[in-house]
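QUALITY CONTROL LOG
STEP: pairwise intake check
CHECKER ROLE: data steward
CRITERIA: each record must contain a sequence immediately followed by its structure tokens, with no blank fields

ENTRY 1 OF 2
RESULT FIELD BELOW
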Amino acid sequence: MSNTARLREFRLPDVGEGLTEAEILKWYVQPGDAVHDGMVVCEVETAKAAVELPIPYDGVVQEIRFAEGDTVDVGTPIIAVDTEPGAVEPGAAPGPGGTEAPADGTARAGAGSAKPTAGTEGVSGGDAAGPAPAAQPGEPGAESGGTKREPVLVGYGVAQSSTKRRPRKPQPGAEASVAAAAIQGELNGQAAPQPAPQAPGGPVGTGTAAPAAGHGASAPSGATAAGGITDMPGAHGSTAEPGAPAAAAPAAAPAVPAAGGPAGGRVLAKPPVRKLAKDLGVDLAAVVPTGDGGVITRDDVHAAAAPAPAAPAQPVPAAEPAAHPAPAAEPAATARETRIPIKGVRKATAQAMVASAFTAPHVTEFVTVDVTRTMKLVRELKEDPDLAGLRINPLLIVAKALLLAIRRNPEVNSAWDEDRQEIVRRHYVNLGIAAATPRGLIVPNIKDAHARSLPELATELAGLVATAREGRTTPEAMQNGSVTITNVGVFGIDTGTPILNPGEPAILAFGAIKLQPWVHKGKVKPRHVTTLALSFDHRLVDGELGSKVLADVAAVLERPKRLLTWG
């Protein structure tokens, strides 16, 4: 079976209606982990909700294409899985010593440096199954020249193309390399290296990493100019060209990576990291890489974007004041402001609010009402044994009052179809509840709320709010809303002018309930009072109809027994 058939790519699905992108919040697996059909591998945040994604097949994770925090278009492969781990193609032979090269085609050992040994060129010492057997005279590979490399397994099943290696000519400066290595070894207390004979797989000390399949570029060499000793300071990620004059590295301090990556000026960074740098306004050429081979990581970008820490005070000798003192250094721009990428729920909310505000002509009406009797009803319901365990609060009564007002004024339950130039009258009510979550504002709705009893409505309402706060609301729960309630009173706000949820005809703002002086039966008494605000789409709802709906809600809250007499 071919590697292509074994390697399966899982593409980001459209988990909602017409979504185009999603942000990866968390990975639950890593390369090398076994997965099975239906297993959740990651959590993504769409423009509507956070969703866990199960993978549809069994296998071993070969590669994760995007990091946490990356925004990915729908249909893009996000993870690759080897569905037949350990399988070898017919006619394919394992690499020297029975080893498998890493998936990215680079040599790895410990912190990322390559330690090639005879017959294991380009293979990590930690990945090798054992030392390669020495070739006998007359056997294939006994001669260094013309050695034919058979395909080897890379990572978890990606085969490396076979290559033929020609004998390497002695490079100028080779003697200097050995001499430099000898000096370095003496400084480090090690024995001086001796030139090694040719061995299967190529000359010892070349350290040339096998090219990654499909990348078309060689990985950074793991050998240094000092004869291929990879455990010397500064050896990681060396890019010395073959034949270049050798120079002994200082033994006192390790090499410090230069900004922008390895020598040559080419910045090494993955596409998600480049996008992050662009979003944060960071110049990758000025970033000091810490990844293997001089690759810039996400942490490097964040470190470059963060304000520079103040340098510790150092004692300096007193000096006479200069005639023209140098101006004080200005603080970094990032110390005065923070730029946050617009994405996920925040991006979707912004787009929806702009579309609604500039599409539907909004009208907002207000009414202040005495809800003392409603508060008394809430207390009585909390003490009712039949409702034990249910969350009973004033919002539940407001929801029931709005549903009754819609039933008394069914014309308000409509939608505007711009494409067909039609008004759609709905014979059901999916009651939306605006919920503030750590990720932003969302509006899940209770399906067929008009048909729910008071206990059923209380159960649905409590579950909806809890799920929203946990960030587990599904996209389906936020689709096809009819009308919305926003409870701004929980923040101590009297009322507001809410913007319509797109596609809905009205939204009711429920303000804070406060004890205020109120004229009741001809006397001023302290009463529980609140203010309601109803915004509606004036294309669908005339002033008269909107006023009737708001008045009915207020009337029920003033005298809750109307839930029975009007019902």
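ENTRY 2 OF 2
RESULT FIELD BELOW
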Amino acid sequence: MPELPEGAGAPPTTPVPLAALGLRLLAGPEAAEGAEGTQVHGVHASEMADPSPYLLGGELLLTAGAWSGDPGEYVARLVRAGVAALGFGVTPVHERVPEPLVEACAAAGLPLVEVEPGTPFAAVARTVWRLMAEARTRELRRVAEAQRSLAAAASRPDPVPAVLGRLAAALGGHTELVDPSGPPGPSGPDGPGAQTSERAVPPPVREALDALASRVGGGGPVTATDTAAGWQLAAYALGRRAARDAAGVTPGPPGPPGPVLLLATPQRTPGDHTIAGAAAVLLTLLTAPRQAAVGAGARSAALLSLLLGGPAAEAAALLGPGPWTVVHARPLPGSGAASGSGSADAEAVAALAAGLGATLAAPAGAGGTVRLLLDREPAPRPGWRLGISAPAAAGDLAAADAQAAGALRRAEAARAALLRHREGGLAALVPPGAAEAHARALLAPLGPSLRETLRVWLTHHGGWDRTAASLGVHRNTVRQRVARCAALLERDLDDPEVRMELWFALGTESRAGGDRDAHE
């Protein structure tokens, strides 16, 4: 498959193999063996002679050949735009795929597939989106399972080797923790460079890993990647100095670099980067001096047990009485804390934990939420949105976790940097069961999208522009949805009493959902 143009790239979606679409391959580098190597990131149909201005890269471009011009120049434009493959629909314009187009695609290495007569382009697009959704679901399940496994490993008496071993198993490759200030390569079964996977790496991979370790940490980049002998390599600096700098602490001399996590996998699978990032966060916290001071990882075991749904009594026994505060945090879009996918990377999470003075922190989950446990009152952090629980005893952390989740949802709706859980109010005067039954009955006519629109609209006191900005839609879309809500509910949404009742119902639904999540 042709390389994507420099500076461009396929959208951040889970790709699907071209071969999975069942279309006959006429040309391309895999024509003799099938199209397993071609990955499709999207579908676009166009009859323009130059559709490149409307492409992102990685698409299966569908055409019936209504454009005119030289096939070689047409294919060259598609290759420069980073098109993954070309799908040609036979009839009504052409009875068969033009031979000059087949030859041009073969010469350029662009996969060309035939869309048989009677097959709508829309059907091809639906198949791609369905396969992408299925692949994304598999990826999320794999990531969630790996994160649970890593968290469980971090709660063991020997957390660092356990996390490295689980990471190696999850990625199907080689993992190690090295000290760049020491000799290259693994330093022994008990040292920071101990090899944890039984899978041996070829000598060229060993040499490339040692070179990669020297490129990160200290004053250099936090992460680096490379390839060697067909293996995918990555290095993550478990830096403390960068976290200290981001936390606003006056930096001292650079000092020696910290530990470096090295990964080598024979192939790259969707979700690998997220899994590796979660492991890097855990290892950063487990190897930090503050973590060593807590003693044998007991507090890590308590928090991770809590996040995995463990018994509250265990957390209370290991943590002490408290009070403790749970914080849910997400990076603000466009901030330095947010990666390309919108989640926070390992270094950003470590910096947040240092800045808040967190006792413990857990890596971002599938939704991008970072969870932290504090023994003090948190302050706003630049680049982050925080939801904060009420102070709680160690035995009540499950409820505090749900409070922090609800506070973060309210903060996002209000576009606030920090919101705290609020106790009492009218909700405390109504039995939870009766409140939930009323909310279900009142909101039953509305689907999830309309409920979310109504909730954000009420949060902004009926402001069309602010609601549209929060939802990322046009203000006319907000007007249409709110009008639809009024029609389905048969209520006058300009009536303050109606708005109050709906706000109470939506809040009750949100709290009930948070309570269910905390116990699942």
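INTAKE CHECK: passed for both entries
DESCRIPTIVE NOTE, ENTRY 2: The mean pLDDT is 77.
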